[in-house]
Design a protein that fits this description.
By secondary structure, the protein is an alpha+beta fold. It is 24% helix and 18% strand. The chain folds into 2 domains: 5-227, q2cbj1_9rhob like domain (Jelly Rolls, Sandwich); 245-280, no CATH class. It has 9 helices and 10 strands. β1, α1 (12-22) and β2 form a beta-alpha-beta unit. It is globular, with a radius of gyration of 19 Å. Bound molecules: 2-oxoglutaric acid (AKG) and fe (ii) ion.
Length: 280
């Protein structure tokens, strides 16, 4: 068992095919190393100011630094990578739309033990979603090389159909080894966890995840990104962040106003969501 690698030239269809089969794959060199370095430099002061986790799951030698949209303009093209969004749309096609779920740099420090093997969709109160209904699509972009030694994410490719269990161990997993700028794509159903860092360096991954528009977002974008910054962002990014209705009636403001109209201070026509009225 190993994680499949595709080149950066792979089409969204090719990536989606592997994602459906294995629930995880790596796309080599999808981001320029210069862009990754720009993000690292924009985020450095925030990483330095981030406290380590306070429990075993978030990692006591691991820092989780969020709010990337507001803090690092260079992340916007990663968050809106056209091929990745195409794949996200294909995986989450059962829902009317999808949105940004969270943006987070995960810095696993030296001597950090491996994380418990888990499914990310357990964040939704362990609800048992249907086997053929994906609610979440995730990326981890390598900001440093990912090696088995420095804590590369551990995965069980093809584990999406297994029953829920807290008993899976590291021995059942393989490391997502990849070079800086590469992107690990994985679904909310695949078993995985951050690896143990036995090296002297910090492993940094940029976790950008997306979920269906009818579920709550893990990172609250409305408060993580200050309003004065949000007002300067383009419409398509704001919609992805959640400034839209999530299905027919989810997320409107007061008298059925569209959240984007409210942010812009414009008086768009008030109505239920941007999708057709449900058929009764
Ligand atoms: O940092 C990683 O490699 C994975 C982290 C993870 O799976 C999580 O925090 O849910
Ligand atoms: Fe996870």
């Amino acid at each position: 068992m190993s994680v499949t690698h595709l080149p950066a030239t792979a089409s969204a269809n090719e990536v989606h095919d592997v994602l459906q089969r294995d629930a995880a794959l790596i796309i080599d060199g999808l981001a320029d190393v210069e862009l990754i370095d720009r993000i690292a430099s924009e985020m450095r002061p925030y990483i330095e100011a981030t406290p380590s986790g306070t429990d075993d799951f978030s990692g006591r030698a691991t820092k989780r630094t969020g709010g990337l949209i507001g803090r690092s303009p260079a992340t916007h093209q990663i968050v809106q990578h056209p091929m990745v969004l195409d794949v996200v749309g294909k995986l989450l096609h059962r829902a009317k739309n999808y949105q940004l779920h969270l943006t987070q740099l995960i810095s696993i420090g030296p001597d950090s033990p491996g994380q418990t093997i888990h499914r990310d969709q357990w964040a939704f109160d362990f609800f048992e979603f249907p086997d053929d209904y994906d609610v979440q699509c995730n990326t981890i972009w390598a900001m440093t090389d990912f090696t088995e030694e420095n804590g590369a994410t551990r995965l069980m490719p093809g584990s999406q159909h297994l029953p829920n269990s807290f008993e899976h161990t590291i021995d059942e997993t393989v490391p997502a080894e990849m070079s800086k700028g590469s992107c690990l794509l994985y679904t909310g159903k695949v078993y995985h966890g951050g690896g143990e860092n036995r090296s002297d360096n910090t492993r940094i991954g940029m976790n950008i995840t997306y979920n269906v528009g009818w579920l709550r977002q893990e990172e609250n974008q409305y408060l993580s990104v200050p309003r004065e910054i949000a007002e300067e962002l383009p419409d398509d990014l704001l919609r992805l962040m959640g400034y839209r209705t999530g299905a027919y009636a989810l997320g409107y403001v007061d008298d059925l106003r569209d959240p984007l109209d409210v942010l812009r201070g414009s008086s768009g026509a008030a109505s239920f969501g941007d999708s057709a009225a449900p058929k009764l």
